[in-house]
Structure formats: C-alpha cells, structure tokens
Amino acid sequence: MNYNIRGENVEVTPALRDYVEKKVGKLERYFDQTPSSDVHVKLQILNNDQRVEVTIPMPKLLLRAEETHTDMYAAIDLVIEKLERQIRKHKTKVNRKFRQDNSLKYMFKNDLEPTMEEVPNDAPVYEDEDDIDIVRTKRFDLKPMDAEEAVLQMDMLGHNFFVFSNSVSGGTNVVYKRKDGKYGLIEAE
C-alpha cells in the first residue's frame, strides 16, 4: 500500500508517520492478496481535539473511517478499529451470501462494485436563482448490483442512502435507512 499522510495544523513527524503505516498495514491480513492501493490519511487538530480520517479506495471496495480524540495516537487506534469492524462485518455478510450461491472460493477484495469518487474541493459550485446553495457535488458510476449489495455498500460508507443501478430491473434505485433501523428501497417508474 502507498501512504499519503498529510496534516492540517499539525506536523507529521517520522514517529507519527511510522505509527500510522504500522497500524494501517495490519489491515492487510484481511485480504487474500495485499491491496495495491493508495491510503489517504488526514491528521487534523481542531481546538483540543485530534481528528484522524483514513480512506482506502480499492478497485471494488472503499474503506473509510474518521475518529476524534484528545490524543492523536488514540484517535489512530480508534479509526483502525472502525475499519476492522467494517471489514469483518462486510466479509461475514458477503461470505454468507456466497455460501448460499454454492460458491467454492471467495476472495474478499472482489465483492463490491466501485464506489463514489469525490469531486475535488475546488470544483465549481453552482447557485440557483432561488439562493439554493449546492455546497458539494459527487460523481460516481452506477454499477449494476442488487438491493442487498447496495445496502452493504451503504453501511460500509456510513451513509443514510445509496444510489445504484438495479441488476434485476435495470433501473436506477435508491436504498435508504429508515428511522426504525430498517431499510427502504425507492424504484423509479
């Protein structure tokens, strides 16, 4: 894995860099092959809080977590724990699904379709005549998947909704998390 570690309001010391690389490197044990992806780590100090954000985009999986703590090293530990929980939860659900499909072997890193790619922060922001401010734009490919895979992807990203192309009907659908903890599906007519 290639590490891109940057700090905002904090200097990334060699000791801090080594600690991040050592901790993130432990995630490799969850994959059949070592992922060849860039690891984006953002270390930030906001008042008295230390904030760590880790994003690992892979061809068919996006791992992302952020954590805030009063100690930078503790925040790094907490964000790694979050990533491990995401991986274990996802791997368990996907393996259960593939066992039902009588699959003989399953490689964890080949289970999800590519996910959203964010537009750079310097992308233009367009304002409507009614003063509706669009402060962020995201673009992504709608890859065919079923509703269950879309819910898994939504949970992995930590979002409340997920837009996808339904592999069964071929239409654009949205899955969302309801207030009662269950999931909903919106289908276009």
Describe what this molecule looks like in 3D.
Helix 1 runs parallel beside helix 2 and helix 2 packs antiparallel against helix 3. About 15% of the residues have low confidence. The protein contains three helices and ten strands, in the order βαβββαβββαβββ. The longest helix has 29 residues. The strands form three sheets. A four-stranded mixed β-sheet has the order 1-2-3-4. The protein has a four-stranded mixed β-sheet with strand order 7-8-9-10, covered by helices on one side. It is α+β, with helices and mostly antiparallel strands and 189 residues long. The relative contact order is 0.11.
* Termini gap: 43 Å
Number of strands: 10
Helical percentage: 25-40%
Query: For the largest beta sheet, what order do the strands appear in spatially?
Result: 1-2-3-4
Please state the average pLDDT score.
77
- SSE ordering: EHEEEHEEEHEEE
Which sheet architecture does the biggest sheet show? Answer: 4 strands, mixed
Coarse morphology? globular
Short description:
Helix content is 28%, strand content 31%. It is of the alpha+beta class and 189 residues long.
Keywords:
189 residues; alpha+beta; four-stranded mixed beta sheet; 28% helix
Which SSEs are present, and which pair or pack?
Layout: E1 2-8, H1 14-25, E2 38-46, E3 49-58, E4 61-69, H2 72-100, E5 117-118, E6 138-139, E7 144-145, H3 147-157, E8 161-166, E9 172-177, E10 183-187
Parallel strand pairs: 1-2, 7-8
Antiparallel strand pairs: 2-3, 3-4, 5-6, 8-9, 9-10
Helix pairs in contact: 1-2, 2-3
